[in-house]
Design a protein that fits this description.
- By secondary structure, this protein is an alpha/beta fold.
- It has a single domain, classed as Alpha-Beta Barrel (TIM Barrel).
- The chain contains eleven helices and eight strands.
- 45% of the residues are buried.
- Bound molecules: phosphoenolpyruvate.
- Phosphoenolpyruvate binds next to strand 8.
- Phosphoenolpyruvate (PEP) binds next to strand 8.
Length: 251
């Protein structure tokens, strides 16, 4: 049995002070839901304040990215041990990183290895663009991102890794994928690659989230799909009530 995970990607939103307010608003509602794990990923500068507030709660903390080098002349980057000082998780390879910041499957692979080496749990994002989807290339693209992004990882247990299937055309557009399509992609192009890479037992235990315009009104439909183990939520994770309702739907 995979425990559902409902994760919030706050992107470039909320100062440290605003982060505290939003956590205060959502924490009691999240704490009231059992059998669902929660993760929130605020901006780097808000992470220490968030860590203080979440330290005795069931809500885990994550960063939105991490660099692969340990230290040195890499101005503006954040090293894995800096993230691991405060966080348990880190999002890697989000499509916005791929589209705007030159992220590739190779850099995703380097970041993921570095995160694992420091005990962080990577939430690795994969997903096709609209053009790829319309050209019928979804499975080819997603399985390539999986194989290249996750090559050579020394995963020994399922709880070391989370995958988020996020069709790029569904992110922030209000146009979610059909739940059965998301489930099909996970079942055909994500879990089988996890099995190739890490063996069947580990692959069956790794949580695979869906992301892309998840909201309270469609969350239940996604979570009733057997292959969907939770959600990576952008916009709706910035509204306490919506994020709580999505978490309740996962329960
Ligand atoms: C995301 O940023 O990962 C995401 C899924 O965003 P949204 O929920 O706003 O589509």
């Amino acid at each position: 049995m995979r425990t559902p995970l409902v994760a919030g990607n706050w992107k470039l939103n909320k100062t440290a002070a605003e982060t505290k307010v939003l956590i205060e608003e959502m924490l009691p509602g999240l704490e009231a839901v059992s059998n669902v794990d929660n993760l929130i990923c605020p901006s780097y500068l808000a992470i220490p304040a968030a860590a203080e507030m979440l330290k005795d709660s069931k809500v885990a903390l994550g960063a939105q990215n991490v660099y692969w080098e340990e230290a040195g002349a890499f101005t503006g980057e954040v090293a894995p041990d800096m993230v691991a000082e405060f966080c348990e998780f880190v999002i890697i390879g989000h499509s916005e990183r791929r589209a705007y910041f030159g992220e590739t499957d190779e850099s995703v692979n380097r970041r993921t290895k570095a995160a694992l080496a420091h005990g962080l749990i990577p939430v690795v994002c994969v997903g096709e663009t609209l053009a790829e989807n319309e050209a019928g290339k979804t499975d080819e693209v997603v399985s390539r991102q999986m194989r290249d992004g996750l090559a050579g990882l020394g995963i020994t247990s399922a709880d070391q890794l989370v995958i988020a299937y996020e069709p790029v055309w569904a992110i922030g557009t209000g146009k979610a994928a059909y739940p059965e399509d998301a489930s099909r992609v996970i079942g055909q192009s994500i879990r089988p690659v996890l099995a190739e890479l890490f063996g069947d037992e580990i692959a069956q235990g790794i949580r695979v989230l869906y992301g892309g315009s998840v909201k309270p009104s469609n969350a239940r439909d996604f979570f009733s799909e057997e292959e969907v183990d939770g959600a990576l939520v952008g916009g709706a994770s910035l509204k306490a009530d919506d994020f709580i309702k999505i978490t309740e739907a996962a329960a």
